[in-house]
């Protein structure tokens, strides 16, 4: 029997620091890190991690169309695109990997994110999602990027761009123009 014949399921890798953290998904399934969840692509999900002596942490996963979907439609795959959209296989969950950090550095990052979001209650939902998942998003302000990723290891200048460099991230270079994130390398 084919478990995921039409691509409706996406495997989400889950890690933690320290390892051995219990994580529960909104589907009711639990794992111990490192591990993974098989989740339905065309709906949002939440994961909750619990570690003794620490406040539980929650991560949200959002679904949306994969980039290739519109390329397939433009290339003449309208019927295939309709089938993919109806089955949910055209969607993709973000982030693809989830990491929970219960170390002192992880707790500090969580406090930084929450503090920023509490002081900016009207922030765009997509930017809020990026900050809570330590992601970058084109159009973020300099303050939002720092709230998400922390202070950069180095700040450089390349032509008209202020470049934030993070040594422990992939990608590592974040290009801001007029204090707005324009590109990432």
Element-level helix/strand string: EEEEEEHHEEHHHEEEE
Q: Helix fraction?
A: 25-40%
**Sequence of strands across the biggest β-sheet:** 3-2-5-6-7
Q: Mean pLDDT across all residues, rounded?
A: 86
End-to-end distance: 42 Å
Q: What's the helix and strand layout?
A:
Layout (H helix, E strand, L loop, with lengths): L8 E9 L4 E4 L4 E3 L2 E6 L4 E6 L6 E9 L2 H7 L3 H10 L3 E4 L2 E5 L2 H16 L5 H8 L9 H8 L4 E5 L2 E5 L7 E5 L2 E5 L1
Helix pairs in contact: 1-2, 3-5, 4-5
Task: Supply the key terms.
185 residues; alpha+beta; Immunoglobulin-like; Beta-lactamase Inhibitory Protein, Chain:B, domain 1; 2 domains; five-stranded antiparallel sheet; four-stranded antiparallel sheet; 12 strands; globular
Verbal overview:
The protein is α+β, with helices and mostly antiparallel strands. It folds into 2 domains: 1-100, Sandwich (Immunoglobulin-like), CATH 2.60.40; 103-185, 2-Layer Sandwich (Beta-lactamase Inhibitory Protein, Chain:B, domain 1), CATH 3.30.1450. Helices cover 26% and strands 36% of the residues. The chain has 5 helices and 12 strands. It has helices at residues 68-74, 78-87, 104-119, 125-132, 142-149; strands at residues 9-17, 22-25, 30-32, 35-40, 45-50, 57-65, 91-94, 97-101, 154-158, 161-165, 173-177, 180-184. Strands 3-2-5-6-7 form a 5-stranded antiparallel beta sheet, with no helix packed on it. A hairpin with a 2-residue loop joins β9 and β10 (161-165). It is globular and about 50 Å long. The N and C termini lie far apart (42 Å). Residues 1-5, 67-75 and 78-89 have low confidence and may be disordered.
